[in-house]
Amino acid sequence: MMKWLVNSYKFFLGMAIVITITLCLFMMGNGSAIAGSASGNLLKQPSINVTANLSNSAGELKFFPNNLEFTTGKRYKLQLTNPSPQKHYFTAKDFADAIWTQKVEAGNVEVKGAIHDLELKPKAQADWVFVPMKPGNYQLRCSIAGHTEAGMIGKIAVVSGK
Ligand SMILES: [Cu+2]
After folding, report:
1. With contact defined as beta carbons under 8 Å apart, do 55 and 100 qualify?
2. pLDDT reported for residue 6
3. Cα 28 to averaged position of ligand 1 atoms, centre (Å)
4. Exposed/middle/buried for 117, CB within 10 Å: 0-12, 13-18, 19+?
5. How many whole angstroms separate alpha carbon 23 and alpha carbon 57?
6. Which position has the higher pLDDT, 33 or 151?
7. Ligand 1 centroid vs 152 CA: distance in angstroms?
8. What distances in angstroms separate CA 64 from CA 57, 83, 106, 127, 160, one per listed residue?
9. 94 CA distance to ligand 1 centroid (A)?
10. What local confidence, expressed as pLDDT, does residue 43 receive?
11. Rg of the chain over all Cα atoms, to the nearest angstrom
12. CA geometry: angle at 112 spanning 88 and 38, to 5°?
């Protein structure tokens, strides 16, 4: 009888510890994403610079490169340049929904908050600073009439950093 009591006591104590650890891990997991964007810990991380061009000086309707890859939980500065003689868009709505945008810097202006697409005039440059949150494969395109159809498209992959 006594042994049974001790064994069930151990069992319940073990269960309680497992549940407590699980709850703690769950809360830490949830908290880190929020803490990352809110507390600024992540913002102290030096950014990983990635460059992409919208078209080129010859005016080809392509992105250079047309394949981009990012990792969740890292801070990036995507440096976009339009070296062509006409305006282009960097449109990636689902990608924009899968990241946390810190800011977009262009000229002397910093735009904070959610961004879905950027229009770059000829010779324009803009830096998009963000932290990818959700892994997935996302479509990139230029939404100027006819440009997507002409092949001004690309792929953006977000891979899990865990
Ligand atoms: Cu275009």
Report:
1. no
2. 53
3. 43
4. middle
5. 55
6. 151
7. 6
8. 11, 11, 20, 16, 24
9. 19
10. 78
11. 23
12. 135
* Nearest-angstrom CA–CA distance, 44 and 1: 59
C-alpha 103 to ligand 1 mean position (Å) = 23
Residue type, 140: L
**Per-residue confidence (pLDDT) for residue 52, from 0 to 100:** 98
Q: Which of 152, 153, 145 is nearest to 61 (CA)?
A: 152
Ligand 1 centroid–CA 19 distance in Å is 54
Please list, in sequence order, all residues whose beta carbon lies within 8 angstroms of the beta carbon of residue 162, skipping any fewer than 6 positions away: 72, 73
Mean pLDDT (the chain) is 84
Would you state the pLDDT for residue 18?
44
d(CA 57, CA 81): 11
Q: What is the pLDDT of residues 118-157, one digit of tens each?
A: 999 999 999 999 999 999 999 999 999 999 999 999 999 9
Average pLDDT over residues 15-39: 43
CA of 122 to the centre of ligand 1 (A): 11
Split at pLDDT 50, 70, 90, the class of 8 is: low
Q: Against a cut of 0.85, is the pTM above it?
A: no
Conformational region of residue 136, where left means phi above 0, alpha means psi within -120 to 50, and beta covers everything else: left
Ligand 1 geometric centre to CA of 4 (Å): 75
